[in-house]
Design brief:
alpha/beta, Aspartate Aminotransferase, domain 1, Aspartate Aminotransferase, domain 2, 2 domains, five-stranded mixed sheet, 12 helices, 12 strands, globular
Length: 364
């Protein structure tokens, strides 16, 4: 059977035939690559996290890897709860925030009414809806890519969006999120805060007042642990229990011993976390200034990436030209944003290399 015939494979279920899978960012194996396409942190994880992972492997009796990990990851839940002044019953952990979100869609957003999210947002959301047969409607962002809270004051089966949004980087103020919660008390509002540590104010303090709020975060970005796959959700115990029921009907051991050890240690090193975030923010501001000086329109960003277009140069051609120079950025061939580049904030040196390349491309 040839690849073109796979959709007709008689062993596939109807669910598989109808799926349009998510396409992750490219992970090319090229030497001397300036990789600015998947929003990874350029500064690496806390040294304490690395040491904790090594310690977890340094076991003469081999019990660390011979035995199953804690299915409830209690140490990690306690670390997260302590950081945010919550109870462990208000914390859910999973194999990256993508798995957490998958459980959220099935456990909290599958209702008779459609779930609402922006028309320009994390492209995994419609994939989850397709996988779980969840009705959804997209709400158009304004011309400047900001989210209009008034658009979400309609009957719905739940609301979800990233804050800052992806791929735009725009931040919705906390006052607007509270307004959204007040207007939708009968449905769950999920705030996907993958990038919140790079310039935003978290909605976590609102959990105490709003039982319909769920906040999802990840250790992949600000804590530079994308390779460990650790994500978590925070909310009232009733919401968390729904996610636990889904998790224990799917995979009781989503986090291995090394991931738990490294994640716990990362929360024990606030100095590294703070310095890493500040470095990314400072580099982002310098990159925005440099790109605007080259004539780019750059959307205000509170994330570890920028979203930009040049009015006189095609985005796809610019992406290819950058690739020829060993620089990888993300380009989405989607309505309204096909002329934009999403550029991860790398080190100062990487961003300087990018700006130099852009200057050459624009001059050519």
């Amino acid at each position: 059977m040839t690849p073109s015939d796979t959709a007709m494979n008689p062993y596939w279920s109807d669910v598989v035939r109808g799926l349009t899978p998510y396409v992750p960012g490219e992970q090319p194996k090229l030497a001397n690559l300036v990789k600015l396409n998947t929003n990874e942190n350029p500064y690496g994880p806390s040294p304490r996290a690395i040491a904790a992972i090594r310690d977890a492997l340094d076991d003469k009796q081999c019990d660390n890897l011979r035995l199953y990990p804690d299915p409830n990851a209690e140490r990690l839940k306690a670390a997260i709860a302590g950081l945010h002044g919550l109870e462990t019953s208000q914390v859910f952990v999973g194999n990256g925030s993508d798995e957490v979100l998958a459980h959220v869609f099935l456990g909290l957003l599958k209702h008779a009414r459609p779930v609402l999210f922006p028309d320009i947002t994390y492209s995994f959301y419609p994939v989850y809806c397709g996988l779980y047969d969840i009705a959804f409607e997209t709400m158009a962002l304004s011309d400047d890519f900001s989210l209009r809270v008034a658009d979400y004051t309609r009957p719905n089966g739940g609301i979800i969006f990233p804050n800052p949004n992806a791929p735009t980087g725009r931040l919705l103020p906390l006052a607007d999120i509270e307004q959204l919660l007040q207007s939708n008390r009968d449905s769950v509002v999920v705030i996907d805060e993958a990038y919140i540590d790079f310039g935003g104010e978290s909605a976590i303090p609102l959990i105490a007042r709003y039982p319909n709020l769920l906040v999802v975060q990840t250790l992949s970005k600000s804590r530079a642990l994308a390779g460990l796959r650790v994500g978590f959700a925070l909310g009232h115990a009733g919401l968390i229990e729904a996610l636990e029921r889904i998790k224990n009907s799917f995979n009781s051991y989503p986090l291995d011993r090394l991931a738990i050890a490294g994640a716990v240690a990362s929360f024990e090193d606030p100095a590294h976390f703070d310095s890493s975030c500040k470095a990314v923010i400072a580099t982002r501001e310098r990159l925005v200034h440099a790109m605007r000086a080259l004539g780019f329109d750059v959307i205000p960003s509170a994330a570890n990436f920028v979203f930009a277009r040049h009015p006189a140069h095609d985005a796809e051609k610019s992406t290819l030209a950058l690739r020829q120079r060993g620089i990888i950025v993300r380009h989405f061939k989607l309505p309204r944003i096909e002329q934009y580049l999403r550029i991860t904030i790398g080190t100062d040196a990487e961003c300087e290399t990018l700006v130099t390349a852009l200057r050459e491309i624009l001059a050519g």
